[in-house]
Amino acid sequence: MQIAILGSGLIGTSWAALFLAYGHHVAMADPRESAEAEALPAIDAAWAGLALLSDLGPLPTDRLTFHRSIAAACQGATFVQECGPDRLTIKHTMLAEAESALAPEVIIASSTSSLMPSDIQAQMTHPARLLVAHPMNPPHLVPLVELVAGDKTAPDSVSQARIFYEAMARVTVVALREEPGHIANRLTSALYREAVHMVASGIATVEDIDKAVAWGPGLRWALMGPHLVYHLGGGAGGYRGYLEHLGPTQASRWQALGTPEMDRATIETLIAGLQDELAQLGNPSRRALEEARDEGLIALLRLKAGLPL
Amino acid sequence: MQIAILGSGLIGTSWAALFLAYGHHVAMADPRESAEAEALPAIDAAWAGLALLSDLGPLPTDRLTFHRSIAAACQGATFVQECGPDRLTIKHTMLAEAESALAPEVIIASSTSSLMPSDIQAQMTHPARLLVAHPMNPPHLVPLVELVAGDKTAPDSVSQARIFYEAMARVTVVALREEPGHIANRLTSALYREAVHMVASGIATVEDIDKAVAWGPGLRWALMGPHLVYHLGGGAGGYRGYLEHLGPTQASRWQALGTPEMDRATIETLIAGLQDELAQLGNPSRRALEEARDEGLIALLRLKAGLPL
Known about the structure:
- The structure is a homodimer.
- By secondary structure, chain A is an alpha/beta fold.
- Chain A is 51% helix and 12% strand.
- An eight-stranded mixed β-sheet of chain A has the order 3-2-1-4-5-6-7-8.
- Chain A folds into two domains: 2-174, NAD(P)-binding Rossmann-like Domain (Rossmann fold), CATH 3.40.50; 184-223 and 261-305, no CATH class.
- The first copy, chain A, is built from 13 helices and eight strands.
- In chain A, helix 1 crosses helix 2 (35-51) and helix 10 (226-233) crosses helix 11.
- At the A-B interface, strand 8, helix 7, helix 8, helix 9 and helix 10 of A face strand 8, helix 7, helix 8, helix 9 and helix 10 of B.
């Protein structure tokens, strides 16, 4: 397929590597003069990660083009991945230009993490083709893609997008309704709220909270989600056993959770706590941490490929 | 060391395998007549898992004894891991019997997930030796041990317990204050509350929520905790950059999170959703799921041993 990627930042370049790895042609649109020079090394780095997961040759630059204009990138495109800034007015402008160049049936998937598809598609000529397809960072390594339809999205657009992403080893989920944070970021926000509360109210340090997740529940969550975890937690009675016997415990624990303010004092406490944690880790650079994360994700994907989950 | 484990259920048998693997002697106390016959296969199964992580011979049954009485198991013990039912009156009775047989300086660590150490130690003769050392299931595989002191716990008891667990490749964190859920289960409860809300309010299915976690944020959480994740999410600006620019987004997303009731209708919706999920997975048995989880955890621990995190 010929895929137009609108925006060549962190997410756009990661998508580009993935799409290229699965044989697609990619046309990137970005108005910034420096876009190509910045994007190419990022695509190359993501490509190197993907090459550890399957047998890839060198980056196929013959299938990759860069364009200053959205209309040019959309010429002949059969799928569009929109990765522009998360501001509605900018999206509207970008989509108007894209639609001017696209055949009416071409699907446009927005990578937005914070906007609602109904708002994004509000001014479109062919809004039925627009949906949200939200990845987790970095998209070329984390398989999750959340699909969200707006009021005017055609069900067939969601079905087609699902096929498109699953053909590239993505794991798709479908939000039944558009809500802030889609699905996954609602869960991360809920966990993070309590992580902030515990620091702000002196229950635990930033470092110990991070250690607790990465050496505790995070290990299980890499393998199974919260419902399945409690299905096993229910012993022979399964999920029903868990909910009948321990559901009330959960509900009472919910009462004890905090509702912190993200005020100046909290922010400074969080930053100081993270500095302590980084010092304990030997003050690794952001690059070193990203490399460790990506190395870990690649190993995890290999590991999960061999598990019946 | 000579370790008494009070209670030979799921947690006690898992601890037993771990302690034996690190060369300790283990005396298990359980009043039930069937205890030994039930515990031995469980210890054996956990031992088989540990044998995949390091070079272990057959289960050293010469270092493992079973006792109907707590006092008998505590004879000569140099550390006690309490794994009884999570009811305060039972704990008080168990600890009175343990103290009758123990030297006064021997540390008693409670595996409780829901009780507070100040309540557990309230009636003890030597309360300074009591602390909570809470593992995640299964303790022989998940490295996290949360240490929590009560009002009367001596700081030295926490230090000694820390050394004890870390010598067995456990990762310890210390709660700065005793609160329901300690640290990790506050985070799992926060995430689970939103997972329940999304099902109850029709935002997503049980299956898609589980898939979203295990193919999305769960992969990152197996490698790093939420604060470190957002440090990387902040780009070149690090955690400060994230909090200054996206902190308000988080705070507004918190407003959109739900506060579900764990009522009958919700419980039935959750159970029906999990049945759909299990059907999609080919209706695996609980045993098969546990084996997949443990196989995954063992592979994850190997993987993390090679990462600089």
